[in-house]
Structure formats: C-alpha cells, structure tokens
From TrEMBL:
Protein name as annotated: Ligase-associated DNA damage response exonuclease
Species: Falsiroseomonas frigidaquae
Keyword Glycoprotein: no
EC number: 3.1.-.-
Organism phylogeny: Bacteria, Pseudomonadati, Pseudomonadota, Alphaproteobacteria, Acetobacterales
Alphabetical list of Gene3D superfamilies matching this protein: Ribonuclease Z/Hydroxyacylglutathione hydrolase-like
Transmembrane segment boundaries: none
Domain of life: Bacteria
Residue numbers spanned by region Disordered: 327-351
C-alpha cells in the first residue's frame, strides 16, 4: 500500500481505498462524504453503500461502473484478493481485506464495536497490517451505554412534556440508529424528521431496516407561527438548529447525539441542553481491544488522534504509523434545503 495525494493506493491491484478525489478504480468502505466521493470510473462496495452513494450523489455520479461485493465474497483483481467484512459503523459499512502473496492488510474504514440494530456488527480479521481510524483516540473518550443515553432522553420527555425535543443527528447512520434504539426502549409514537433526513430513512427501510412510524415536521398553519410537536421527538441535522426552521417547534429543548458530547465545552458552545453520548465510532478502550484482536504487528492510523494511539502502540511493542490522510473525519451533512437554511447556517461536525 502507498499513501498518495488521492489516498491509500494498492500498487499491485491498481486501485484506491476511499480516495479523496475521483480515480479510475475505487473501493468504498461506507457512504459518509469523507469516504465516498463522486465521479470515480469504477466503484466496488457493498450493495447498501452503492445505494447510499446513488441516493446522495445522484445516479450519474456514484461511479460510472458499479460492482457489488457481498460481504465475505472474494473478488480477485490483478492477483489481489479483495474481501469486504462488516465494520459496524453504518448500514453497509465494510472493512477491506486485501491478500497478496501471503500478506494481509485490513483497512477498517470507520467502525464501532457497540451493538447497532441498523447494521451488521464489526468482525475482527487477523492480519499483518491493520489500518485503523482513531476519531476518539484519547483515554478520555469512553462511551457510555447507548440504551442508558436513550433512557435519559425519554426521562426528559417525561419531565418536559410541553417542549419538543430536537435531537441533532447525522442523516446517515446516527438518525436511523437513534430511531431504532428509541423503538427498542418502547417509544412507539411517530418520530418527526427534518426533510433532510427523510430520503436516507426511506433507503434504510428499503434495505429491510424497520424504523416504525416517521413523518416530516409539519409546516405551521400560518407563516411565522410555531408551537408544534410539544412532547415529541424531532430529529434534524445539527445545522438546522441555527435556522428559522426551529421556530416551528414548541419551546425546543436542544439535544445532540454524538461521541463529542463527552466534551462539555462542545455541548455548551452549541447551546445543547441535553447532550447524549451516542457514537458510531470505537472509543479508546475499543480501539485498543480491536488492535489486540486483529493481532497485527503493524498499525497504521488514518485520522483522529493518531499521536496518542501510535504512542500506545509503541508501549505495546507494535509498530505504529500515522498516515495523515487529507479529508478524513469530516463527515459533513448534505446542506439543509435553501428554503429552511438562511445564508448564515453553518454545518458542524458531529460524529
């Protein structure tokens, strides 16, 4: 493997993994914008990831040629054996396992180790080199149980029935996972969605992930009127909080579901009243546990707090290498539709 301006390049196979710009041949681990870029000539990915790319980019930009790889299936290209294995990050997310001349490298993409009812769980694969993310690669990041965080949201709904609970979530992955966790916790009422979340929730449903009753946030009867959805759960991209759209809701109690909510300053700066520490990435302990499981003597870190993780690897007698790939960790949302987003709207990272 070689690090290039486009990203990770497999020399014997002549293809890129999650390239940051258009290339002739790409393997895509998952559909977030910092990994799935448009306009490649040939794209190999899971069926779900290809579906997500088409939904977000349009039919003509999700790869001129698209090849579905079923997880576990071996695809051979120029003597390199390629296999996709579930990564547990979002629907269709996969690790890329490459075997060539007796050596194996595993590129994890983004991954989490917690249970998620909306996607297949992470599967560790032993290898010679493991390429890992490190979004939450500091000892301070130890994620609590997601069900307990959802219980806090439900308790707040009980305590403040006159307020709409607006939860900032990613359109891809976080929204659907939070919906599924709410269903498991017994919330069977309609969950209301910002329009920017509807398309991907419908796509999840099309792939067999049942989310229960959902509806778009209704428009007020009169222009400028508000007071809607008291006591209800409303999901929206984080950027929507800064738009006039929020005025529709009844005394909105602003929440956010993110691993970054462990950092109180982030929550305070965004005006989050109820921070929910729910992450779709591995925390510090899970990063270390995963590295132990894959048994790789060499660890490459693509993004996040690579310095801390590389140092931890050195203490364990492992070779660590920070790759410093450009554009990683910026899981930007699709822009909020113009009619609901004034010019001052800013999209903030929430992982």
């Amino acid at each position: 493997m070689r690090v290039t301006p486009q990203g990770l390049y497999c020399v014997p196979g002549d293809f890129f993994i999650d390239p940051g710009r258009a290339v002739p041949r790409a393997i895509i681990t998952h559909g977030h914008a910092d990994h799935a870029r448009p306009d490649h000539d040939h794209v190999l990915a899971s069926a779900e990831t290809l579906g997500i790319m088409q939904a977000r980019m349009g039919e003509g930009r999700a790869g001129r040629q698209r090849q579905v790889a079923v997880p576990g299936e071996v695809v051979r290209h120029r003597d390199v054996e390629i296999r996709l294995v579930p990564a547990g990050h979002v629907l269709g997310s996969c690790q890329v396992v490459l075997d060539w001349q007796g050596s194996r490298i595993v590129i994890s993409g983004d991954y989490k180790r917690r249970r998620d009812p909306t996607c297949a769980p992470f599967e560790p694969v032993t290898c010679d080199v493991f390429v890992t993310e490190a979004t939450f690669g500091l000892p301070v990041f130890r994620h609590p149980d997601a069900a307990a965080e959802v219980a806090r949201l439900l308790e707040s709904l009980r305590l403040f029935p006159d307020r709409a609970h607006l939860v900032g979530v990613y359109a891809l992955g976080k929204a659907q996972r939070l919906i599924a966790l709410l269903r498991e916790a017994g919330w069977d009422r309609t969950i209301y969605l910002h329009g920017a979340l509807l398309k991907l929730c419908e796509l999840y449903e099309a792939f067999g992930v049942k989310l229960g009753p959902l509806a778009p946030v209704p428009a007020p009867a009169k222009r400028g009127a508000g007071g809607l959805l008291a006591g209800e759960v409303v999901l929206a991209p984080p950027s929507a909080e800064a738009t006039a759209w929020i005025r529709r809701l009844a005394e909105p109690l602003v929440c956010a579901a993110s691993g970054w909510m462990r950092v109180r300053q982030r929550a305070k700066a965004r005006g989050v009243e109820l921070p929910l520490i729910i992450s779709d990435h591995a925390d510090w302990d899970e990063l270390l546990a995963t590295i132990d499981e894959v048994q790789a003597p060499e660890i490459w870190v693509t993004h996040g707090r690579d310095d801390a993780l590389v140092h931890a690897m050195a203490l364990r007698g492992l070779r660590g290498r920070a790759l410093h790939l450009l554009g990683r960790g910026e899981e930007d949302e699709d822009p909020v539709p113009p009619e609901t987003a004034p010019a001052e709207t800013a999209t903030e990272q929430i992982a």
